[in-house]
Amino acid sequence: MENFINKIKAKNPLIHCITNYVTANDVANALLAIGASPIMADEPEEAYMMSAISNGLVVNLGTLNKHSIEAMKSSLVTANLGGIATVLDPVGVGANKFRTNIANELLKNYKFSVIRGNISEIKALDGLVSQTKGVDANEKDEECEQSKVDLAKSLSQKTNAVVVISGKIDVICYKNRAFICENGDAMMKDITGSGCMLSALIAAFCSVSKDLFEASLKAVVLSGVAGELARKKTDAQNGANASFRNNFIDEIYKMDDEKLEKFARFSEI
Amino acid sequence: MENFINKIKAKNPLIHCITNYVTANDVANALLAIGASPIMADEPEEAYMMSAISNGLVVNLGTLNKHSIEAMKSSLVTANLGGIATVLDPVGVGANKFRTNIANELLKNYKFSVIRGNISEIKALDGLVSQTKGVDANEKDEECEQSKVDLAKSLSQKTNAVVVISGKIDVICYKNRAFICENGDAMMKDITGSGCMLSALIAAFCSVSKDLFEASLKAVVLSGVAGELARKKTDAQNGANASFRNNFIDEIYKMDDEKLEKFARFSEI
Amino acid sequence: MENFINKIKAKNPLIHCITNYVTANDVANALLAIGASPIMADEPEEAYMMSAISNGLVVNLGTLNKHSIEAMKSSLVTANLGGIATVLDPVGVGANKFRTNIANELLKNYKFSVIRGNISEIKALDGLVSQTKGVDANEKDEECEQSKVDLAKSLSQKTNAVVVISGKIDVICYKNRAFICENGDAMMKDITGSGCMLSALIAAFCSVSKDLFEASLKAVVLSGVAGELARKKTDAQNGANASFRNNFIDEIYKMDDEKLEKFARFSEI
């Protein structure tokens, strides 16, 4: 097993995030917690230059607008040229055709190393009819594990990207191989940004490894384990979702590779 | 008394917020805390589609710009057509003529279910000369209760909206009826976003009831009670405004209809 | 010694921040914590009007875009005309030529009272070849104290501004005089926004004094002392960077001039 966290802390990778303003602060603090450096820049005229000096690029569609879309496109050009890891977080894709069209255009023209979303978003990306409800997963889409794995495999084979479906059980898939991860806590869906933070963490993990499949898996495990530990602390404090948010980032900060391995619960399926 | 919180948790309403980037994270977490789903989308070409699938729309003028104003207008069209609750938070209105003109234009052309602001903002909206100072209420405007009630009634009658004036004593008014609510804590004005969060919570409450007046009143009570409970916890932690912000959202999460009724302090005036 | 904190709490100065969306919430809460009122407005058509009624203006290049740059320029015109304190936070300057060009253009055409950045950013501003890495200081630039002081003096003499270089040891310089401040904690670099908050606090301190050099120095001391106290509380809570962020703002809230003087560690160099 690669010592991802040690490697990140040693390399201090610069992760360029073109992301939404709702969770940008949490994403930045989560990246700092793991030992990476966040940079958010979404002016089209400079964003591609930030990607050119970065070790990873996250494209998060949360509060996209025409300007940030241009920044995403030009940044993906330099990121793809430079061969750095690129992560797509298709927030809310499927909710309306504008957002879905943008996601499709990005997928068609640029190379993504990893795509991470909830089941509704991944379904929409895969071109199926989905019941997306805003940015949260629709319960109707929270189906059986096997159908999630099949979906992830389908999208991974079409895009050549690692596909991560977040949910009660996370699915991490590359082409015809898939892992499920059982780490995590129900309160992760009661804060905004747990998905956005995970997408950025995946970019950080991918920036220190050539094995993007394992890197994505371990980032998912990290997020889940941090969620479990944060929940224990939150309950002990008689806190709720806002405390959980802080504890979650704190637990990422306090994680090391040994602790990660100790609490990890994943298996190939 | 309607069981608003139970209803929100059961319905999980989608609340579309065209809001400022300063407090968007807090607004999202407060909505999640009460059991609603937040969606922030302010690209003009897609925002109206988000409103079309939402159960409530919040228009918050905090960090407005020309693009978000277009998003507000088109979203209000679909929200009004769909008959969902619309809440106007006129942040900083009265501070300059640009902001005041936008607010007036919105009021003239679209239907708002609820308008919530501080006394300076509501005074500016009502067309009076106000002493607005940035986004915080001017002390000169913090007048006697009766003049606040008269002001709220005036604006409510002109706009046909429920009018909420936040302050030491909150006023909730619909046409010629008014309640005052004494819940709350002084530290609420020492964090950014307590007003923004309340406006979003009002939208959530209105999304599960036909009685928008009671819904607005109960959302105000919720915010005030959460503030009181958060203050107790903050003091016990030897914390200050940042801790209070987290505790405030936590207390919203932990609230139920029984607790709300137990601590409520409001009366018709 | 001036009683800066008392004065701020008495005056409640309005601080206009044209700042990035990553840390805007923290900046607003830090300003509220010290007793100032934050206003964030970056629409070009209204921003200059906000500066006209403000007591201080912060221009932070974090997530700049073409629109916010226009807002910065027109706001600087009214701020300079009105004679209020203006603070430049050159986030990420040196990372690419777009950002560096903007900073240079601002420096050439407008008057800044204070410029605050890390060593890489200040070096870039001074026209030297710098090794900027995103928004965090490059370790190669973290040189000996004396070279930092020389750099600060050089930029101060060129710009007639107070120059603050944040780092393990902070340097506060005006023309040929310089102080170093040893307050602070290593965890301040593990949260996003500690620099942004300091820049805003400097504006608040400058808004209540004619001695901008002492005001800047004392704001730096405040930030450092708050960092030290926050770290103690964070460790006692077994927390990490997210807890530290909240504790940091809490400690600003709980600070008074006596406590500040008691913990201050600075000296002229």
Automatic annotation (TrEMBL), chains A, B, C:
Cofactors, names only: Mg(2+)
Gene Ontology BP terms: thiamine biosynthetic process; thiamine diphosphate biosynthetic process
Secretion signal, residue range per the UniProt entry: none
CDD domains per record: THZ_kinase (cd01170)
Pfam families: HK
Known role: Catalyzes the phosphorylation of the hydroxyl group of 4-methyl-5-beta-hydroxyethylthiazole (THZ).
Name of the featured protein: Hydroxyethylthiazole kinase
